[in-house]
Amino acid sequence: xxxxxxxxxxxxxxxxxxxxxxxxxxxxxxxxxxxxxxxxxxxxxxxxxxxxxxxxxxxxxxxxxxxxxxxxxxxxxxxxxxxxxxxxxxxxxxxxxxxxxxxxxxxxxxxxxxxxxxxxxxxxxxxxxxxxxxxxxxxxxxxxxxxxxxxxxxxxxxxxxxxxxxxxxxxxxxxxxxxxxxxxxxxxxxxxxxxxxxxxxxxxxxxxxxxxxxxxxxxxxxxxxxxxxxxxxxxxxxxxxxxxxxxxxxxxxxxxxxxxxxxxxxxxxxxxxxxxxxxxxxxxxxxxxxxxxxxxxxxxxxxxxxxxxxxxxxxxxxxxxxxxxxxxxxxxxxxxxxxxxxxxxxxxxxxxxxxxxxxxxxxxxxxxxxxxxxxxxxxxxxxxxxxxxxxxxxxxxxxxxxxxxxxxxxxxxxxxxxxxx
Length: 421
Description:
The chain is α+β, with helices and mostly antiparallel strands. It has helices at 2-22, 29-39, 41-60, 105-171, 177-211, 238-248, 250-272, 309-352, 358-374, 380-415, and strands at residues 24-28, 67-72, 75-76, 81-82, 92-100, 219-223, 277-284, 293-299. A hairpin with a 4-residue loop joins β3 (75-76) and β4 (81-82). α2 crosses α4 (105-171), α3 (41-60) packs antiparallel against α4 and α4 (105-171) packs antiparallel against α10 (380-415).
């Protein structure tokens, strides 16, 4: 019976460990991007906007429906008889009308709808660019936040062990209270800073989970094997980057497409100043000078006062507006590319100026400081100063790497293409 209880306990413990492990999702950037393109709800909604535009294209191509009018006299007031369909004492009128659009209005409406669909596609691609940049930025920010947390956890663990030993010595009366108080105060400071990082980690996990369209609750652990290892800024020029951006920035393409939309709208408004024709066929059984009258007719509005002047003028102004916005977007893209290039190159230069073995060497140094403190070769003030310097230096080194990655991702985002990888 005792053996069975132990077996059940072990199985429960194993189940708990498996469950705990399943609560952490290890994810590479490639895996995150795959989930992003499959599950992101904003992309799904934006893609439906393209389908909506194609539906408007279909609607614009439909011809107007004909209209049918029927009139019957139910009662003859002169003969005081009910009117029937087969009697000569009743009146029936049937009219058939059909609107014929002139000046290629239907074709121009289709062309305008197609340009709007193209704009929806530009908006979709631009949304991908923005969300993908957010995904990369959040992914790496979470990764480097986790790296910083490792530093805090190591420092807190080491300091806690030191503090426990120091407390024991204090209880024996071997060390002063002021030194013990300083160690405790520094430990509180480290825990407070760590708590702030944990809050940032939670925010990053929330944002990353939202971008991935995940409805499950788990801890996301970014896995980074190598980050921008083969980057040579000597092979990049600002003019080439601007050309790449002109081809891949869909907000800039959106400005060009908006110009196209306004041009096609002007063509449509110019066509609308020409009146359409309505053809009509009328059958009148007893209301004319002859029975069973059959007549054909055509009608149109006379463009005397309203020649669609206001809409035409507005369309012309919107073209001028679109031209200025296009120039503004082009200038903004050029300035953005220039700024992103300089920032990325500067961040790369600073990050590469630090020896890659710096972190390991500094860790060995602080280990020696810790050993000297335990041997009481240095004071508690010197120990805390060294310890804090170690923390600040490692965190700054970590931040430099984060800044470098962020600057590279920003340059990729600015040109609209992953030129750095």
